[in-house]
Structures are given as structure tokens and as C-alpha cells.
Amino acid sequence: MSEFSTWSLLVLTLPTENATARMRFWRALKAKGCAVLRDGIYVLPHTPEREAMLRELATAIGESGGTAHLLRAPSLDLTQEQEFRGLFDRSDDYAELIRSLADARKSVTSQSEAELARLLRRLRKDYETLVAIDYFPNEATTRAEAAWQDFMAHVDTVLSPGEPHSSERVIRVLSRTDYRGRTWATRRRLWVDRVASAWLIRRFIDPDARFIWVTSPEACPPNALGFDFDGAAFTHIGERVTFEVLLASFDLERDTGLLRLAAMVHALDVGGPAVPEAVGFEAILSGARERSADDDVLLEEMSRVLDSMYTHFAANAKTTESGGSA
Questions:
Q1: In this structure, are residues 35 and 42 in contact, taking their beta carbons and an 8 Å threshold?
Q2: Is the dihedral of CA 71, 72, 74, 80 positive or negative?
Q3: Which of 3.40.50.1100, 3.30.420.40, 3.40.190.10, 3.30.70.1130 is the CATH number of 6-86?
Q4: Tell me: the pLDDT tens digits for 50-75?
Q5: How far apart, in whole angstroms, are the C-alpha atoms of residue 144 and residue 123?
Q6: pTM as predicted
Q7: I need a labelling partner for 110 at 20 to 30 A (CA). Which of 38, 239, 248, 282 fits?
Q8: Phi, psi torsion values for 72, nearest 5 degrees
Q9: CB 249 within 8 A of CB 172
């Protein structure tokens, strides 16, 4: 531990005549993750933002008839540093969350989509609330994150059945002019590979593409070009995900911006080398999918995100090339 932390301390007396105000302040202190040193003394690791929040709370307590004093102090020594940090250990809270995820997992397949969406929103709120007050992440943080990602993957499997398996076949280079104005079909409830592939199709392969979102691979119409499910015209081949297969099929692999996007899609869909932008893209897609159950709306919204990311990747590639040749 290279240096000691600085702490914000709130010393308070809550109003005695106003039970509603007392409860409101207790809840606010708990929601911000304040630790209790003793009755009436609360502590947080100092940041300007947290101190500003405590200052606002102190003012509100004073206006409600209580008293509050805000102090700032560093740990005196290693023993005190460890003692104060220990007050913020979220291991028990994370263990309870992991038990909740395990219990919820047992009922996922028996719930309707609406019920599952409500369950997911509740658990996501519980998880994100806990992460927000985890000021000193440790192994318990890592275990909880893994459990959350595993639960999300399980829910996605239930909501989006028919995830494709890799096949072994030759990828032929096709002419884009032969694939204009076609109907394309994939599984509903778009996720990373499907939404990126749909964007790629409309942006670079078939500007007049019409999309339909099927409930299962078996529901794909015979006249539609399927993608990202077993038996589809375009799906996983070897180590390539569907987005990468489309790049190879339509001779788009020389576009460095698309290759950077492909690396991100691959990492999110089947794993692989980390791509810094992947976490942000997944978070945006997850939020967009929670806000809308309409895949047409989802594709429109995520297409703007993918347009921006493609522009960013392409510009970076040109800058790198220019710097390398200088």
C-alpha cells in the first residue's frame, strides 16, 4: 500500500421530531455506501464528488432540525488504513448477490419474456448499485462480475435460442451486385454478432436490404438469406463469427476499419483478445435492447453507434499508417 487514503467524515445528529426525515437521511447514507464508525459518525473514502454529496446532505440535515459537521482526515497509520478499508468490504453483499443469481437461474426457462425482463432489470439494478459503492474492489468483486456475466449469457441463450455452431466449409467470394434488394433473416432479440452483421449488410453489401427477425431458425422463409444460425447462408465458419464470414464473402477484409470492428465483434461473441471499445459497445447495446423490444428500432439505434465506431477505427488506422510511413 503505497500511500494512505483520505477520508470524508460526517458527524451528525438527526432531527428527533421528524421520523420521515430521519429515515430519508439514513437511506441516503446507506445508498451512498457510507460506513458507520460509531453512532452518528459516517465515513467515505474522499473524492471531491463524494464530499460535495455529503456537504449537500449535511445542509439538508441542518435545514430539517438536525446538526451535521463535515470533516476530512487521512489515515494515521497502516493499521487504521486497513481498519477503515475493512469497513467497505462488500464480500458478504456480493455473496448474497451470487446466491440470488443462482436462485434466479433456476427459474429463467420457466418465465415469460416480460417476467424475465422484469427479473433482469431488478437484478441488474442490485448488481450495479453494489458495484457503485464498491470503493475497494477485491476478489469478491471479480467473482461477482463473473457470476453476473454468466447469468447474462444464460438469459441471452434463453431469449435468443439457436446460437450457431461453427461449421467447416469453404468461403467463396461473392459479388455484391448479386445480393442487392434481398430479404435477410436472422434470429430476433438482436445481440452483438447479429446487430453488427445486419449493419454491415445494409451499410456495405445491400443498401436496400429488408430484414425479418424470426423466432427460430426453422421459421426462416425459404426465399430469405439467413445469417447467424445453423444452416444459414452466412454463419460461423471455422473460427470466424458471422460478421467475419460476411467480410470474407464480400471481399471487405481490406478495410482496416471493418477489421477493427470484426475483432471487437469476435471478442464479444466467442471470446478472444480484448478490444478496449468492446465493453462500452456491449453496455450500449444492452441498454438499447432493454429500452426497446423492437429489433427494427434497435438496429436503427445501434447502426448510428456502429457508424461512429467504424469512422473512429478507420480514422485511427489512417493515422497509424501515416505515422508508420513518415
A1: yes
A2: positive
A3: 3.30.70.1130
A4: 999 999 999 999 999 999 999 999 99
A5: 12
A6: 0.57
A7: 282
A8: -135, 135
A9: yes
